[in-house]
Amino acid sequence: MIRGLYISASSAVSEGKRIDTISNNIANANTSGFKKDMYITQSFPEILTMKVGGESLSIGGVRMPAPFNYIGTMSAGVHTSVVATDFTQGHHDPTGNPLDVAISGKGFLAVEANGGERYTRDGSFVIDAEGYLVNKDGYKVLGEKGYIKISGEDIKINEKGEITSDGVLIDRLKLVDFQDYSALMKEGDNLYTIISQEWADNDKAFEGTVRQAFIEGSNVNSVREMVDMIAMLRTYEANQRLIKAHDELLGKAVNEVGRL
């Protein structure tokens, strides 16, 4: 019964965290360039169970349980393995704004934020009071030459990310990609950072294309997330009932069985 409490409790904790993950996905269903998270769990290591007081064998002078005394294996429930990000591309929506860009294929746009280089799929850009290209949070967008300063009216951004203003080439957007996306970690403000310097050489050539006047939507399917949310809530409630049942059984064991 004690083990049953542990199993039900670990499952309830796990489902609670899964619900938090799904809630965050739903909250960002309309966030440009947002990539949904997936909550992955795994079983605690299983242990072998045997009959108590059964026959045993003598092997090299050491008494060992007989093979037929093995009952099987058991686990103490589930625990969090990892929260992974699904980097599947979202849909592209036209905006009519020549400063907006969306990446078709794999890769990221680079911005300067929090004292370093960060990466994003959100290409909602504007020009600040100083004439620099920035994202909606005010972080400067990076080009191959550094900050991108734009003057002029007729702004063009081709599929290679090259920016021209009134026919004059200004710079090219810094477009990056990585061999292993598990090296990236969400940092807030729809930005990603590299986990550690060990992954610094994880970059690869950018092979995607840039679409001007488009924005990439999130890859969250709201209907599917709501269905998953309902399923998780039912599982959580089932675990609550199991915990209550185990608690009542323990109460009977202490107060009634102990009297016999």
Which labels suit this protein?
260 residues; alpha+beta; 6-stranded antiparallel beta sheet; 3-stranded antiparallel beta sheet; 2 helices; 23 strands
What does this structure look like?
The chain is α+β, with helices and mostly antiparallel strands. Strands 9, 10, 13, 14, 18 and 21 form a six-stranded antiparallel β-sheet that branches. A hairpin with a 2-residue loop joins β9 and β10. α1 packs antiparallel against α2. It starts with a helix and ends in a 5-residue tail after the last helix. 23% of the residues are buried.
Topology:
Blueprint: H1 2-27, E1 37-43, E2 47-50, E3 56-59, E4 62-65, E5 70-74, E6 78-85, E7 92-94, E8 101-104, E9 108-113, E10 116-120, E11 125-127, E12 133-135, E13 140-143, E14 146-147, E15 155-157, E16 162-165, E17 168-172, E18 175-178, E19 184-188, E20 191-194, E21 203-204, E22 209-212, E23 214-216, H2 222-255
Antiparallel strand pairs: 1-6, 2-5, 3-4, 7-23, 8-22, 9-10, 9-13, 9-18, 11-12, 13-14, 15-16, 16-17, 18-21, 19-20
Helix pairs in contact: 1-2
